[in-house]
Structure formats: C-alpha cells, structure tokens
C-alpha cells in the first residue's frame, strides 16, 4: 500500500471486484441487471436524430455502425476512431432527453471504458473537440434525477473523467459530491457501494480531498455504523485513507471526528479479511505520521490506544495473524507509536480520549473518587470541552451503558465541582438528566437519580459554604 502511494497519485486501478475490468455496476446488482437488459434490447434507429438536427447524416452513420457491431468490432473501431466515436456519443447525450436513448448511450460509453479504462483519454479529447467539459453531458443526466440506472452510470462516467484529469466547476463539484454523500449515508447497499466506488476515483485527485472533507465524514460514519459488510467497510476506509494523505485533513480530523477514528479501530478489531486489516492499518499510519503538529499526532495515538488497538497490533506483528509484508510493516510502525504514546499517557489522557470517542466503558477512572477530585477542573479546559461532549452523549446516544456512564460522570463532575452547575445547566445538561430518569433501562434511571441527588446536595453545600464565608467576613469587619 505505502510503496504504491506515488503511483496511486497518478493512476490507480481499484482492487477486487471494483476493478474496471468488470461489468458495469459491479458493486450493484440492480444496475448490473439493468445494463444486461439494455444491451439485449433492440436499439431504435438513429436517423430520427438527423431529422431533429441533433446529429448530421455522417454522424448518424457512424453511431449506427458502432451500435450494431459486435464487442470485438467495437473495440477495433475504438482503437482506430475512438475520439470521433466518443465525440458523437457525447454530442447525442448532450442534446437527447428520451430516457431509452440516454440509457443506451450511457451503456455504450460505460462498456467502452470498462473494457479499457485508458480510453478515458479519448473521451477527454472528444469533449475538447466538441468544446464542452468532459463531465458536462453526464452532470445533465444527474441533475435531471429521472432514472436510477442512468444516474449511476452517469456518476461512474463523471468519476472517470475527474480521475482522468477533468476538473469540475465549484458548483458542479458541490452538487456531485453532495449526491454521492447522500447515497453513502442513506442509500441501500448496492447504491452505497456504487457511490463509494465513484468516491474512490474522485478522492485519488489530491485537490478534491480537503474540499470533500468538511461535509463528507458524517456520511462515512453513518455508513460504517449501518453496513457491516466487509466490502463496504473496505471501500469506506479506502476513501478515508486517500484523504489522510492531505496534511490539513489529518490535522483537522480529530477536531470533530475523533469518534470516526475510533469507529475504524472497531472495524480493525473485528477484521478477518487481510485486505480490510491492511487498509485500516495503512490509514492509521498516515494519521500518526502525516500531521506536522506533534500534539495532533499524539491526539490521534491517544484515541487508538483508548480503542485498545495495542494488543491487536501486537498479535499482527508477533503472531503472524496476516502474512502480507506491507501489512506487517505498517502494523509494526503503528504499534511502536502507540506504545510510545501509552508510556506518556496519564489516566486523565485516557479518560479524555474515551469521552471524545463516545465509546464509554466502565473503566476504573469513572468510579475513582481520587480521579475526580484530582482532575475535575480539567474538564473545564478548552471552554468546557469534555463537559459539552458528555452532554452531547446524553442527548444523542442510544446505548444504555454509554448513557449510564455519561450520566454518572456528569454527577461526579457536579459533586466535585459545584461551581460548574450553572454552566452545566446552560448546556441543557440538567434537562437531559431529568429526561433520563424516565429511561426504559433501569441502570440509566438509577444513575440519573444519583446525578440529580448529587446536583441538589452540592448546590446546598455550595450555598452553605458561601453563607459561612460571608458570616466570617462580616465578623472580621465588625
């Protein structure tokens, strides 16, 4: 993986069943079946488009001959006249709106590039001859939102042209990547994988990584949570790995997406396929090496240590769980960095990383009275960052154990630092705890009741201390 990075920046053939040598729509059976149906149905005569002046008689003869040829004859035709064939197909796709014809044109184009991905150069040249952006005819299909098959075939073509060197306008890039994000986040399995396959191409271009980062990671997080298929997980982490070559992306990753880093750690802990383990470890290595800021690298390492990756990586390195040499090399590098991080981590560092990951467990610090007395005010650092995160967990988590732990920690914070009560209430923390007193889970209800008691008790104790100090002050003044 790592030795291929430089080559990947130039061109990359997707692995496994997502290689371009497969039939159209390899990731989605629905699209694949539709492509077979379109190839087998009779093609309507093209001469009607001469009458409507979409194409000239000579162009009609060219597209008629090409569409009637066998696959072998088409291949030879493209080798000899590829630019001209593609120019006519793009011209038709730019002007025709009849769905049946659009489907046929997209299938002809897709078949040509599936057989030989290098032909994208001829597509780009054909677009140049037609004086149009190479992606423009396909974006029109996407924007019409008329047919799922047509949209995904158009998406595949957009991704190919971008990988080939075409540059989307800012507006078009935003529309296209938003469409892909929605499919990744909310689409059914086959639609999700088709969109991930397109993103794998788009994100191979360095200039697209930061542009996609801002809004794209939530889609990956949602998809990782929803889809446990190895292939989907592999494609998601592959996209993350591509983005991790951007230093700015790496530096910002944990600002709002620490939980996603922990989610990928969960994927690695359950990985049984070598290719999935390899891409996860390669991603982690980038996250630990690419950021220039030492503090950022340590923050990433802390998340991975808290996710209990050290024993997993140790087994990879010392027990030959997987045979791949590059995986062994990456695992050893990541393990060394995590062990060094662990040596310098305090108990509070572990606790903070756990809260940031959102994956709370009943580790000793939660129950330790000494921990809370020594560290409670550190929860106020960075404008009460950890307190805010605990309240967010109360608002959003659906895991009863995580809710119980977060509620317990809020109670401990208020017990040991009663001055934080006003801040906690402004964050709606009190309201969330009151709601959890009616939670269906008995442990959550119990912790919510205890937290409420601590909140009330400490409020009275705090007021009592203030009254006592005021009385002492008045006595000294008198």
Q: Please, could you describe this protein's structure?
A:
It is built from 26 helices and no strands. The longest helix has 36 residues, at 442-477. With 478 residues, it is mainly α. 76% of the residues lie in helices and 0% in strands. Helix 2 (29-40) packs across helix 9 (148-164), helix 13 runs parallel beside helix 15 (274-289) and helix 22 (381-396) runs antiparallel to helix 23 (400-416). It is elongated. The protein has helices spanning 5-10, 29-40, 48-51, 57-68, 71-95, 99-115, 120-129, 136-144, 148-164, 170-186, 189-202, 206-226, 230-243, 247-269, 274-289, 294-306, 310-318, 325-344, 347-357, 364-367, 369-375, 381-396, 400-416, 421-426, 429-436, 442-477.
Q: What is the structure about, briefly put?
A:
With 478 residues, the protein is mainly α. 76% of the residues lie in helices and 0% in strands.
How is the biggest beta sheet arranged? none
Based on CA inertia axes, which overall geometry fits? elongated
- Structural class, from helix and strand content? mainly alpha
* Gyration radius, in Å: 29 Å
Q: Helix share of residues?
A: over 70%
Summarize this structure as a short list of keywords or feature phrases.
478 residues, mainly alpha, 76% helix, elongated
Topology, pairings included?
Blueprint: H1 5-10, H2 29-40, H3 48-51, H4 57-68, H5 71-95, H6 99-115, H7 120-129, H8 136-144, H9 148-164, H10 170-186, H11 189-202, H12 206-226, H13 230-243, H14 247-269, H15 274-289, H16 294-306, H17 310-318, H18 325-344, H19 347-357, H20 364-367, H21 369-375, H22 381-396, H23 400-416, H24 421-426, H25 429-436, H26 442-477
Helix pairs in contact: 2-9, 4-5, 5-6, 5-7, 5-8, 6-9, 8-9, 9-11, 10-11, 10-12, 11-13, 12-13, 12-14, 13-15, 14-15, 14-16, 15-16, 15-18, 16-18, 16-19, 17-18, 22-23, 23-26, 25-26
